Each structure stands twice: as structure tokens, then as C-alpha cells.
Amino acid sequence: MPRIDVSELQVERQKFKPILPKILKNGAEYIKVVKCKFIEPISNQSQYEIQRIFKNTYGFPEIVFRKGINIAIKRKTVKVAVVFSGGQAPGGHNVICGLFDGLKKVNKKNILIGYIGGLSGILKNEFKVISERTLRNYRNTGGFDFITSGRTKIETSEQFNLIKEEFLRNKVDALVIVGGDDSNTNAAVIAEYFAKEDLNKYVVGVPKTIDGDLKNKYIETSFGFDTATKIYAELVGNICKDVNSSRKYWHFIRLMGRSASHVVLEVAFKTHPNIVLIGEEILSKNMTLSKVIKTVTDIIVKRSQLGKNFGVVLIPEGIIEFIPEMRELLVNINNVIGNNTKIISEIYSIDQKIEFICSKISSKLSNLMNSLPFDIASQLISDRDPHGNIRLSLIETEKFLINMVHAKLLKLRKKGKYQYKFSPISHFFGYEGRCGIPSNFDANYAYALGYNAAILVLNGLTGYLSNIKNLTKFPKQWECCAVPLTTMMAIEKRISKNKPVIQKSMVDLQGKPFINFIKERDKWILNEDYISPGPIQYFGPSNITNMTTKTLQYEKKL
Amino acid sequence: MPRIDVSELQVERQKFKPILPKILKNGAEYIKVVKCKFIEPISNQSQYEIQRIFKNTYGFPEIVFRKGINIAIKRKTVKVAVVFSGGQAPGGHNVICGLFDGLKKVNKKNILIGYIGGLSGILKNEFKVISERTLRNYRNTGGFDFITSGRTKIETSEQFNLIKEEFLRNKVDALVIVGGDDSNTNAAVIAEYFAKEDLNKYVVGVPKTIDGDLKNKYIETSFGFDTATKIYAELVGNICKDVNSSRKYWHFIRLMGRSASHVVLEVAFKTHPNIVLIGEEILSKNMTLSKVIKTVTDIIVKRSQLGKNFGVVLIPEGIIEFIPEMRELLVNINNVIGNNTKIISEIYSIDQKIEFICSKISSKLSNLMNSLPFDIASQLISDRDPHGNIRLSLIETEKFLINMVHAKLLKLRKKGKYQYKFSPISHFFGYEGRCGIPSNFDANYAYALGYNAAILVLNGLTGYLSNIKNLTKFPKQWECCAVPLTTMMAIEKRISKNKPVIQKSMVDLQGKPFINFIKERDKWILNEDYISPGPIQYFGPSNITNMTTKTLQYEKKL
């Protein structure tokens, strides 16, 4: 592992002591694990199928913690492994710190190892033993560079065998996977495999993603969402100020966050841009591409009539999946790619790949494909990730929208309905926010999630997601628990195959955040209600340093 | 003017009281202005010409302040106007606050007005009277939205007449122009005009630019550079962490800063990226485009041989002006545009514009032009700003370099010398940093510059740049003075015409910052010495909140 150079701020942050929820404060020895009743699955579809696949880990009860004495746990020595899986999120290192401290608190002989580069580290026997000395420099820092991450998916029997062999040889008792929906699906699958094989080895997941889409009626939010949206809001807020100062540009800003529009919604609450596109709303209103363009163009024309040839547009990374004709096109491309992986991989030129795919889809869709700019078309057929997801971050939707809007404005100009200069500037913010130094909220939350995961594996629980509730209250009042992973699963089609996956959460159009957004957004369109939230503050007044997301605040408000 | 919505952080920042240099603390009444000796011009070229153009304002002495009694100033009532000119820089509002407080401290009846939208506000008689009530919400905030900015250049006799009429009618005694090199050139020209016309009206400039290129042996730095480079460094540092966590991408990051590479150099000091291109070095080594590409590609290949298919490249916005053949091309395009403005403006299609320009330059240059990707070629012939500068921010050099590097790697791959996947991601950071909430340094510095400008105009000085020295010391120890604007001027060719302009400062290859950079950069190439400085902190330990740029620290170190 490379040595780490730390900035002055990181040095100061290393002194920060995360605040633990009250129940965790004295460690596993003083916690009684209580199995509650079986809880309702998130989805009511395909539960029979899920139960069939997860014979040994389906139907587990929810877990809560109560004060109590648990001396047996002190005598046992365990070896736990941790991996990061998928994209970075601020707070990852604090999960490891919490896990490490939780394991060591109860028994100094407990061991934590970290597999390098995600789950593939297990397959390749690449790991490091974690000590206070090596971990110290990473406390409250951003990034996953301590043990790095990966996107390997475990699905073949060869892979399962390798994991089993590695864990038996290395005497690993439990695995903690820090990941998003796909990685926690993997956690569930590995937990089931260990249970089926009767290996007495446990798997626990930790909810990580900046996208904010790993939440549901049991999980309030994932760690990383708070910090990442604060970083994006800093940038968007600065651009709003810039727009309002120079008053001559239209900034089209796409924000990372995969399909769901949670990131855009949260950043909109913090900055009040003029136009905010929400994928889920576009889908529910069945808005065609030309309707979306018209909505944006109408506002540009209206502002221009007020002498305001400037503004800010927020675009979710995943918008393209929500526009009906584009959605249909993507589903069809996915199917063609899924059914012709080998053939397509052997076609060298992008033109020919597009041509091949067009030959396998309806003429309506093939016409649509051919009407798209070449850049966009080639981005649509680019490689999928190992979970079958299209890599939305690579599709420059913001530029595509600018081109479409520009063309529409030119038409209006010819008709004499628009006479100003349209000066657009495009941005995509994503990588900038995944490795920020975690906010106080994420530093506390991720640390508690890791500590909580330690309690779970020490108690021999498997197939669970580490879970913390009551997050809008002070950390001391947070409630610690665990939700069975299979409770959150449903069957989904991924590259033409049905797979059990943990359900991603989309923006709920009946939910409080969206309803509040609807109430506010009309004011933002023609005015300059811009807000500049500024950079994350770690020191200073508590209303600035400790507040979590507006989304969570709205959701928890009665 | 639009109403202002403020974030929680801005509310807290409004409570921040900038620390004044000791000499300014009691206001103009207790300051004696001392005229020092005539100081050497920055450039020793074309001084005769400068003297000829600035007959009434050339050869002024430097000004310093000493403790003393100046009661006369208290009895006089003045009306001062302020304008923002050019791009935004963090701290602009604090210049106005310092100016306002400095004027009011000595006489409550003094009036400050702000012309709207830059110098064009004077021509259009658009202004607002500034009061504590209207100013309060803008103290220590980013942006120029309080009175907005513009890029109008004053050069025609009609414009000069309009300014004269406006100032006579509106009874304005003095004008403070907050701007960069071109805007301060304008300040010098207007000061000369007022002096020539014997109007008894004064003009003072304030050094503003995030680019860091308005500095010289008299001026230590401009306000805004500190905050902007801290914001860019936050983003680059986060990306470095991301790169080191996922270990699969090469990020090519272009940073705003016009021709000079100061911004890139400062951000490099703070983040330690693998490859840092410095325009001035490329020029001095006479590196051709293919040599630049080879330098980058060689490092990518070397890192790849170590299993490191990832890294970070920093690219100055202005790099293209420093590559010899590109420089020659740009100079020639500028001349063709300058000599054929009307003809070119009447050519509708970009293809035909390129064709026309190619017909007017040598066949070598026309071949180069035709070898460039269409995007880049069309960006090269895009409109110049009113000062004749090419709008470098619009040229996507980072993508151009990626394409060239990619092509080179493909060739190496065919020869079996490179066998890995090259996954590049491009970024351009500029607008994100121009309107950030000013750092403590910029909040103090800009406030002091404004306060200092108030002392200058109250004392009837004209043709000066407000100047503060000793900036690496505590604000109380800062020294206040003023440098004649004409001292910093030379004759330059702008769109084929010779013009007197304030000299931009390029990175000095013999200067301490660059020498320190040379010492360090080799370590960064093959290692991951990345540093994540994190976001600007306004509260907390002083080593985090009050340090200014590494550039200034190196420059001031003995």
C-alpha cells in the first residue's frame, strides 16, 4: 500500500472522535442482541422466488440492541475481514475504524483484516492486517485508498469455492461488505452460500453510496450521501452566484447519482437553481424527449423576456433512463448486448457495433438511435459494469440537452419568438464528491455503522445489513439495529437475465421531500433565489457543522 | 437588484470582522500620505511610448502611509463610485465593504455608489447608492452579484465623453475600478483622461483576479487567487483520492487561469498530482505539441509498467498559447481576425470561417489548422473578448490532449510497447471557483484593499493601484501603499494593434515557487504522493483557516 501524505486539515480531522450512539458506548460486552419479529419485505413481488433462492437466509427477524451483559463474547476471539465494494463514498475509512474499535474494545485479540481491491482481493488472497498504527492516518479521511475498492461480482461456483478455501485457510470468521445495492446483493448471496455450506461464517453488509438510493422503510440513508451532496451543492451554489454576477451564461449541470434523482433533489434544496429535472417525475408524466426539451426551452424564453439570459439547470445522471423512448431504447440495447455479448465484443468499430445493434431492434428504435448525435449513440452502447448497469456517468446528457435546446431556440428565433444569444456551459460533477473528507454527520454515521457491524458479527449474525435509525437526532440518541438483506430484495432483469437484487429506491413522488420541492420550485424559475451553501465546515457553530441532508429532515418531519 | 437568499454559513460569515492593517485602524483622519521617490517601471521596453500616451499620469511616485493627523479630510465630503470589471473573484464584496467603511469612518456624509454591470453602468447611468442596510447581507460573501460586473472597455471619445458627463451630472469625485490587468489598464486610461481634461476627478484600481497573473515586484498577489486555488485544490485533491482508491482512471484536469500557469502551480503544491504541465516551461523549452504528448505518454507507460493504470494530469487553461506551433498559429489567426473583422463576422458557417482564415496564413500553419479536430479548430477562431484576448476557457484542451495521448498509446500498443486499457476522464474547473465564499485571507485582504482605496481617493490621488504588502504576516502587520498604474505598463500587440497594457505576470522559471516545484515534482510522477487539502475552513485552528497560498509563502521566504 502506498504511504499516505496528509494535509493540515486531515491532521486536525484525525483528532476528531466520532460520537457513538449510547447503546454502543461500552462495547459488545454490554449489549444484548434481541431478535424481533419477521418484518415485511420491501417488495411484495417475487417473494416466493427470493425465498427459493435464499433457502437458508430468508425470513430472518429484525435485530435490535438492548442494554445487557454478554460476557461470552469477551472470551471468544474472532477474525473479521472487511472489503470496500463499488464506488467510493465519504466515510468508508470510518466504517473500518468503527469496526476495528468495536472488535478491539471487547477483546484485544480480535483481528481485522482488509482485503485489497474489493471482493477480488479474497479470490486473490490479497489482504492486510489492520492495526491502530496503520489505521491512524485514515481516521475521518475521505477515499477508499486504505484498502482500495473493486467491482467484482461473485456468481460462479469457482468463485464461491475460492472464497470458501480462502476463508478456511485464513481462518476468517466473518466478512463485512461495505457497498451499495449491488454489493449488498452480493453480501446476501455469499451469506446464503456460507449458510448452505454450513461453514459457520457470517456476512454483514454496510449501506454505502453517494447516490442516496439505498434506503427504504427500514434504512434511513446510506453513508456518503450527506458529504457528496454538500460538495456538489458547494459547487452548484458557487456557479449560481457566478451566473447571477456575470448574468450571461446558462449552466447545464449534470450530477452523479445513477438512475435515481436523490442527489439532484438534495442539491436543489440547498441551492435553488432555476430548472431542476427529476427523472422519476419525467417517467411518471410520461414526458417524451421533445416535451423535456420544450419545458427547458420555455423557461429560457420566459427568462429572456425578462432580460435574464442566464440561469442554472440541474440534470440527474440517470435522466436518460426515464424518458420513455430512451428507456425503451436502452432496454432493447441491453437485451441485444446480453444476447450477443460475444459477437459484439468481436466487432471492432463503434459504427459497426451501432449498426449491428440497430439491426436487432425495431425500426422505430433504430431510427431514434440514428437520430442521436454519434457521441451519445456510442455512449449508449458502451460496456456495462459487472452488474449489468449502463455506466451513466459516461453519457454526456448535459451536452446532448444543450444541443437539443439550442436547435429548438434557433427554430424559435427564425419564427421571431426568441432573439437573444444562448451561451450555454456544461458541467458534470461526480468524481469530485466521492472522496471528500467526510462531514461530521458522515464521520459519525459511518463510524457507528462499522461499530454496529462489529456487534453483529461478534454475535454470529449473518445476512444482515448494519442499520442505524433516528439520524436527524443527536448521534447519542441514534438507534442501532440490523435488517435482513433478503427483506430488501426483489427479482429484476439485468442484461436480459432475471436476478435477485436489493431494491434501489427511486425518488418517491408522494414523499415529503418531493412534495416540498414542488411547493418551492416555481419561485426559483423566474427569480434568482440562489443560495450558496459554501464548503463543508468541520469546526464552528453546530448549525453549520452538524446538520444532515434536507432530504432526511423532510422525511423525518411529522 | 434581486433580493439575496443567504445560507446558514453566509449568515455566520456576516459576523466575521475583517482585521485591518494597523495603520488603517483609525481611518483616514489619522493617516499621512507620503509620496516616495519615482519607482522603476516593471518593463523597460517602450517606456517612452507609455510616457507619451500618459502625459499627465506618468512618472508618479510610490505612495506610503504614515501615522499622522489629517483633519482636513474630515471636513470634505466626497462621492465615490465603484465598479467591478471582468471575471468574478472571491472577495469582491469585501472590497466594497472596506471602501464603504473607510469612507464613512472619516465622514458619515461621504457617499459610495456602485455602477451596475461594470463600466457600462457609467455609460448607461445605472447605479445604486450603497448603504449599510443594502451591504450587510454581502459582507464576506462570494460573487459580484451586489452590483454585478461587465467587460466593457472604454476607448472611444464618445465613451469618454459619456463618462465625463455622467460624473459631472452625478457629482462623482472618484472612481474605484476593481479589476484585473485589462481593467486596470482601463483605470489608467480613464485617470489620464480625467487629468488631461483637468476635471479634478480621481481613479484608483484594485488588483482582482483568480488567475494570479496581476503581480510584480510591487504587487504581491491579487485578491481571489487564494480562495479560487483552495477550491480547485479541494476538487483536485478529492479526485486524487478517488484515483488512488479505484485505481483505474487517468483524470485530465484543466484549470482556469488564462495564459499564466500560476493556478496550476499553486494547486499542484497543494495536491501533488502525477503530471503537471506548466505553459511557461513548455515555451522556454520550445516543446512542440508532439513533445508535450510524448512527455505525458511516457509517464503513462512508465506507471503502467508498475501496474498503475491511473493518475492525475493538471493542465493550465492557457497551455495552447505556449506550444510554439500553436502559439504561432494563434498569433496569425489573431492578425487575420484583427484585419478582417467585418468580413469574418459576415461569414455564417464555421467551416467557411476556418477556410477563409486558412487562406490568409502560411500553408504550414494552414496544414496545422486542418490537422486539428474540428471542435478545437472552431474554438480557436471563436470571438475574442473586448480586450482582444482569446477566450481560453472555451477551448477544451484537456479533451484535445486526451485524444492525442490516446492515439499515441494506440501506436505504442501496435508495437507491443503498451498493453493496458487507457481510461481517461476529463474535467475543467473554473466557474466553480470564481464566486466561492472568500477565505479568511481573501476576506481580510480584499477588505483592506478597499479600505486602502478609500484613503487614496480621499487624499485626491489618481492613477494608482491600491496595494498591500507583507501578506504572509498577520493582517495587523500588513503594509499599505499604492503603486502608479503606468509603472506597470508596456506596449503589447492586441488583435494586430499596439496598445499600452498593464503587464501580466507569467510563472517565473527562476522564481522560488517554480524552483521548489522542480525539486518536488519528480517524486509525484511514479508514486501516489497525493494530498487532499479538503474544503476551505472559516472556523477552527488558525493553521487551517488563515494560511495563504504556497506560492506567496515560497516567494516571501528568504
Give a quick summary of the entry.
Chain A is built from 23 helices and 16 strands. With 558 residues, chain A is an alpha/beta fold.
Report on this model:
The structure is a homodimer of 558-residue chains. Chain A has 558 residues and is of the alpha/beta class. Chain A folds into 2 domains: 282 residues, Rossmann fold; 237 residues, Rossmann fold (3-Layer(aba) Sandwich). In chain A, 43% of the residues lie in helices and 16% in strands. Chain A is built from 23 helices and 16 strands. In chain A, the strands form 3 sheets. In chain A, strands 1, 2, 3, 4, 5, 6, 7, 8, 13 and 14 form a 10-stranded mixed beta sheet that branches. In chain A, strands 10-11-9-12 form a 4-stranded parallel beta sheet, sandwiched between helices. In chain A, strands 15-16 form a two-stranded antiparallel sheet. In chain A, helix 13 packs across helix 16 and helix 15 runs antiparallel to helix 16. The two termini of chain A are 48 Å apart. The relative contact order of chain A is 0.18. At the A-B interface, helix 1, helix 9 and helix 19 of A face helix 1, helix 9 and helix 19 of B.
